[in-house]
């Protein structure tokens, strides 16, 4: 473990919850824009989780999650909202 390296900057991987040294972690910006650093707080992934990350475009995903009430509604209501939003977007009337 990292016990011998006290007082180092340690971050938590958002995917697996592992504590990793900041220098061994990868920054993750949930908006997919790591180049704009203003007023931002990055999250972190450990290297194995970063490798597993899909690098496909995910445009609109965060907005959809926000609109669906992620983190605010209970899971059942969130999933229902998310489902409705995605369905509505994929099947134009
Ligand atoms: Zn991880």
From TrEMBL:
Listed Pfam families: DUF7562
Highest taxon of source: Archaea
Name of the protein in its database record: Small CPxCG-related zinc finger protein
Species, as recorded: Halomicrobium zhouii
């Amino acid at each position: 473990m990292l016990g011998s390296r006290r007082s180092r900057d340690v971050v938590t991987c958002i995917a697996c919850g592992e504590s990793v040294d900041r220098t061994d972690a990868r920054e993750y910006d949930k908006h997919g824009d790591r180049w704009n650093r203003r007023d931002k707080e990055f999250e972190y992934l450990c290297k194995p989780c970063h490798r597993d990350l899909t690098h496909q475009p995910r445009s609109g995903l965060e907005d959809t999650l926000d609109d669906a009430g992620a983190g605010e509604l209970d899971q059942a209501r969130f999933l229902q909202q998310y489902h409705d939003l995605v369905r509505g977007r994929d099947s134009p009337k």
